[in-house]
Amino acid sequence: MKSSTPHPVIPVNQLQSGMYVVAITRQSGAMEIAQTGLVTNPKQIEALIRRGVSAVQVDLSRSKLVSIDQTLSPEPSPAITDPQRPGASANGEGRELKIRRLYQEARALQGKFIRQLKAGEPIDITPLAAVAEEMVDTMFSHGDAMLCLARIRAKDAYLMEHSMNVAILLANFGRYLGLEHGVLKELTLGGLLHDVGKIMTPDEVLNKPGKLTDEEFGVMRLHVVHSHDILLATAGITPIMLEVAANHHERLDGSGYPRRLKGAQLSLYTRMSGIVDVYDAVTADRVYKQGMQPTQAFRILLKGADHHFDRELVTRFIKCMGVYPVGTLVQLSNQRLAIVMQRNPQEPLKPVVKVIYHTGQRHYLEVQWLDLAKNGVQERIESTVDPKEFGINLANFV
Hints:
The chain is α+β, with helices and mostly antiparallel strands. The protein is built from 12 helices and 9 strands. The longest helix has 28 residues.
């Protein structure tokens, strides 16, 4: 029987030649596996098994199979069905797959929007607006899962991923501030579209590895004007969406661009957008720079409080994200590394984590969910960790 999803997670022993692997979802052993692509022979499958891979996610639409093996059955995701996971339930896997599909759908629609703009084709934001509304709904029901996806990114897809993440972060921040559902939808769609003007920025400026010259920076700053103009000419765009696109680089002291707005000229939505945009930008890995850890980004925002950013909003944003934001890799007191999966508003220093790696023995562990606030749990978080220090690809575990 065919799987009901085009991207099922299956045990590695069900992998077949002709299947297209999009992610390693469970592995152990001393070597991190990050290969994806088409499986062309059984030796590749054997190599994955030898290296500790036990489950993979496949894209059936990109697979080259005459027919899917009747024995193919989805692998129970440890992130959902692990009995040690707090709140595990039988339909959890379906929720996780739905959230991933929503993320992928939003990315695909962003790409289509950009391609239409470049080709000069008529623009229809209706599909993106529907996705933005679903993102807001999902943020209320499974906000931590959405935030976790926002931490997974590729260096070569920065423009779309940054916009996607700004949208998710704005939805989360707005929910925390108690904004109305309709406003949250507009902020989310504004986030998805806020940098669309960068399609007009030359690649040699957009992706320059070094510091921009004054002339290049002037070209770069024009992307905000382009974003405003593109959206102004697009049916269905609201004032809030325009504001997010046009003002996210304005600063409280008037040092921002393009209009050097200051003080009371910066609305709540503008102030929120500026904070979220900077947070995501500085935590992103780029081709030419390594991203900061979330705690470092918080320090950047606090340093700019009262000058660039609204201090009260910065404080509330940090509280909204948590001391250890979802998706952060942390070191526990027993030499194990874990990913923060769920926040704990009552005890922010004790979130729910997914244990994946032993630093002393330098090897992966069987995935284990751990609620640090649960009675009897001795482990505590000692520090945040850069995944690159241990060659860990977080996308394989969330």
